Amino acid sequence: KKSAAAVKKAVGSAAEKVAELLTPDVPGSPGSGTPSVAEPTEPRDPLPPRPEQGTPQTRTPTGAPTGARADANGQQGKYLTTSQGARLRDTDHSLKAGPRGPILLQDHHLREKITHFDHERIPERVVHARGAGAHGVFEGYGTADGVTRAGFLKKGKQTDVFVRFSTVLGSRGSADTVRDTRGFATKFYTDEGTFDLVGNNMPVFFIQDGIKFPDIIHAGKPHPDREIPQAQSAHDTFWDFVSLHTEAQHHTIWNMSDRGIPRSFRTMEGFGVHTFRLVNEAGDTVLAKFHWKPKLGVHSLDWEEAQLLSGMDPDFHRRDLYDAIEAGAYPVWELGIQVLPDTPDETFEGIDLLDPTKIVPEELAPVQPIGKMTLNRTPTNFFAEVEQVAFHLGNLPPGIDVTNDPLLQTRLFSYVDTQLTRLAGPNFSQIPINRPHAAVNDMLRDGFHQQAIHAGVAPYRPNSLDGGNPSVAGDADQAFLDVPVTVAEASKVRASPVSFEDHYSQVRLFWLSMSPVEREHIIRAYTFELGKCYEQAIKERQLLSLANIDPVLCAQVAAGLGLPAPEPTVPLADVTPSPALSQIGEVWPGDGRTVGVVIDPDGDLDGLGALREAVFAAGMVPLLIAPHGGLVGGLPVQRTFATARSVEFDAVLLAGAPVPAPDAIPARDAKAGTKGSAAIDPRVLLMVEEAWRHAKAIGAYGASSAVLTAAGVDGTPGVVVADNAADVFTQLQQLMGAHRVWDRFPASVA
Ligand code: HDE
Questions:
Q1: C-alpha to C-alpha distance for 422 and 213, rounded to whole angstroms
Q2: Catalytic residues
Q3: Are 160 and 137 in contact (CB under 8 A)?
Q4: What DSSP assignment string belongs to 179-229?
Q5: How many angstroms separate the alpha carbon of residue 219 from the centre of ligand 1?
Q6: Interatomic CA distance for residues 548 and 568, integer angstroms
Q7: Hey, what long-range contacts does 72-78 have (CB within 8 A, 24 or more apart)?
Q8: Which residues are annotated as a binding site?
Q9: What per-residue confidence (pLDDT) applies to 633?
Q10: Cβ–Cβ < 8 Å for 129, 172
Q11: Which 3 state secondary structure label does DSSP give 659?
């Protein structure tokens, strides 16, 4: 230990060092001083934009020209200026009456800087506030030509896209890995006008009629009195609503399944949810449901892992998306459609296609690929692009039209309405990220934040003063077509079709389609969420719904809650499971997956460099974890035992022998390590134990297999040992193809 005198001496000499760096009489700051080494005195040229960015000021983030002057914006020129372009001599000191005096009201630069800052925030989205976005390109396969005239689906046609992924319930700063539905909204900047496919990672919704949207959202959001819990459905108001409003049960079981906690945005399916109407060149129509299928397969987190991540890395999904894109592991999805005949009753195999709480099982109508999306560019400015992007279901290209789904119909109104407040006025489509790449020639004028200087005197039709322009498009001009669907003669009613009253059959279908381990997760999720409720009446009411879904599900959850399992109130539906709904059973590519490689600087580092290269070659990211930072064996250490946690990795590989001397471990960390070998760092043991609990592949070579013994996991499924790094990684890679070591989860339900 250092003596008090030594500490004082050290502090004293540090203070002297700082004093040396300060120049006491910098003009304008008498007495205080500023570091003399920090800033260059000569202006530097601005950093060059990345090649693919072009010049940000003259192009929108999607690459379309904005028409702005190249010299008009900040961080482009050499000199700092005011917003009016006056060069500034000083931005660090406000204008005062003497160095110690009060600040003068006339300091325009101070007021401009602070006022602008005061208004930097805009209202967050009322739902889907937490999100991340990326740019990419969509390429049509041409396979949809027979059913839609949409030009962006033609073979080989490339279209710029911007995608925003989101959670629904949480605020903008909430954690990524909460249990929730994920938004999956895509803006296609097509030549025929922008197409927004504003979907989710689940194919059904909580409500059948948009008029109930405020109800479900008020129930899911934090309680109004104490504003807790944040970004959670595990609370009384949510379960109160879904247990009373049983049409929500289908969406709810999706949330309770592993789909509610995706491993990555890159491993989520996307769904348009509603049924759309497609129209081809000849005017023939079909009904269709949109699906996004991820190239990497559909994978999820483990619930404990998701909870740990909420604390360890609340930005986990955002980071994963951007790390993958920057590493060149571009996320890819195929767009597909289920094509369904456009019959007068709008049903298919007895399924009401206007009911957004129903799916059409893929076994009944296969998803046919019609194009491919690759996300290949991260945003340049998060606010300008991810926050300001504004989606709207009514943004449709010719060839795609809406149906009478009453949820869809409400959404057609809601999105523009919300943007008017969120983006402060009616001109939000002029914000760079929202600008169409098709030529715009509207007669919308004026309004807050108008960016255009419209020429012409006659923004009305018909006119003679502007030569009658613009004219309207004819059949040959690929104009949007409102499909002339017959509307049945009917009375005005506030009512739903009788078919909308079936609230349980497809929930049972989903449950029966799950593998045993997925069922186990669903049971645990219900038990967790209902266990967080205070009101017993709510738990009992939800158990009634579970009884109508499946008696085993109900009995297991009831046992966990310590309540009796009720009898069903409706006959159990006789349904055929849909294997396509299960996430388990295939082997997938591992692009962008992370392998935590635990190393001991004093251990056997042979083969470490080659191992790292092998992981890279497999399209994965190796992260070296050591007791301290810096270089080990000439390789950079990315995580230390203090910063690493198992949840960040898809697999853990123990290289060499991570056995630091116990006295190198701070006392508070060492305490936790009593159950393993005293010589093994407890944080490494914890990493192995957690990775094992979360069914991740674990490997070791050389002396490090002692860690597996100490953690009590050697010889168990998915734990592999070899003599050398290459062999162990080969085995790990095979295990990772299945996403998790499923055998490790106990399944109480077959
Ligand atoms: Fe949304 N929804 N929604 N929604 N929604 C919004 O629009 C709304 C629904 C979805 O990343 C809001 O710009 C109503 C279904 C996504 O910017 C708002 C109803 C589906 C996003 C709104 C629904 C979605 C939103 C909030 C019931 C899946 C995020 C901010 C009729 C198919 C978009 C905004 C982004 C956002 C209203 C139901 C998906 C308030 C009224 C069903 C992915 O307009």
A1: 18
A2: 128, 200
A3: yes
A4: SS-EEEEEEEEETTEEEEEEEESSS--S-SSGGGHHHHHHHHSPPTTT--S
A5: 16
A6: 5
A7: 75/46, 76/46, 77/46, 78/43, 78/44, 78/45, 78/46
A8: 125, 164, 213, 411, 415, 422
A9: 86
A10: yes
A11: coil
CA distances from 267 to 51, 184, 590, 651 (A): 29, 12, 11, 17
Looking at the DSSP assignment, which residues form a beta bridge with residue 197?
Answer: 186
* 3 state SS of 140: strand
Per-residue CA distances from 93 to 43, 74, 105, 460 (Å): 19, 20, 14, 52
Ligand 1 mutation pick, 122, 125, 217, 275, max ligand atoms within 8 A of CB: 125
Summarize pLDDT for 585-602 with one digit per residue, the tens: 899 998 889 999 999 888
pLDDT digits 0-9 by tens, 103-155: 999 999 999 999 999 999 999 999 999 999 999 999 999 999 999 999 999 99
Q: Which two tokens stand for residue 184?
A: 């999956």
Query: Is the dihedral angle over the CA atoms 713, 715, 719, 723 positive or is it negative?
Result: positive
| ipTM here | 0.96
Going by alpha carbons, the residue nearest to atom 9 of ligand 1 is: 411
Question: Would you call 478 helix, strand, or coil by DSSP?
Answer: coil
Q: Which residues pair with 388 in a beta bridge?
A: none
Nearest to 318 by CA among 222, 221, 386: 386
Amino acid at 692: W
Q: Is 613 exposed, middle or buried (0-12, 13-18, 19+ CB in 10 A)?
A: exposed
In contact, 165 and 317? CB cutoff 8 Å: yes
Q: What top-level class would CATH report for the domain 594-744? A: alpha beta
Q: Which CATH architecture has domain 131-229+263-434?
A: Beta Barrel (2.40)
| CA 412 to centroid of ligand 1, rounded, Å | 10
Number of H helices, E strands in the chain: 18, 22
592, 317 contact by CB (below 8 A): no
Exposed/middle/buried for 306, CB within 10 Å: 0-12, 13-18, 19+? Answer: buried
DSSP per position, 332-372: EEEEEEEEEE--TT-EETTEETT-TT----TTTSPPEEEEE
Integer-rounded Cα Rg, in Å, for the chain is 30
Identify the residue whose C-alpha is closest to ligand 1 atom 6.
127
Lowest-pLDDT choice from 203-207, 285-289, 665-669, 675-679: 665-669
Which of 705, 693, 704 has the alpha carbon at shortest distance from 740? 693
pTM here is 0.89
Q: pLDDT-derived band of residue 607, with 50, 70 and 90 as boundaries?
A: confident
Which amino acid appears at position 200 of this protein?
N
Report how far residue 161's alpha carbon sits from residue 607's, in angstroms, rounded to the nearest whole number: 42
Collapse the DSSP code of 406 into the 3-class scheme (helix H, G, I; strand E, B; otherwise coil) and give the result: helix
CA-wise closest residue to 381 among 74, 97, 603:
74
Residue 29 corresponds to which amino acid? S
What is the Cα 279 distance to its own chain's centre? 32
How many CB atoms sit inside 10 A of residue 372's CB? 16
Q: What is the DSSP letter of 384?
A: I
Q: CA quadruple 148, 149, 150, 151: dihedral positive or negative?
A: positive
SS (H, E, C) 482-502: CCCCCCCCCCCCCCCCHHHHC
What's the token pair of residue 79? 């000199």
Where do the domains of the chain lie? Answer: 1-32, 131-229+263-434, 594-744
Q: Which residues of 705-731 are buried (b: 16+ CB within 10 A; e: fewer)?
A: bbbbebbebbeeebbbbbeebeebbeb
Residue-wise pLDDT for 521-558, tens only, equals: 999 999 999 999 999 999 999 999 999 999 999 999 99
Instruction: Check whether 60 has a pLDDT greater than 70.
Output: no
**The pair of three-digit structure tokens given for residue 619, joined into one six-digit string:** 């399209």
- Phi, psi of 697, rounded to the nearest 5 degrees: -70, 140
Place of tokens 């004026």: 446
The binding-site residues of ligand 1, defined as CB within 6 angstroms of any ligand atom, are: 125-128, 131, 164, 166, 183, 185, 198-200, 205, 210, 213, 273, 389-391, 407, 410-411, 414-415, 418-419
Distance CA 170, CA 618 (A): 35
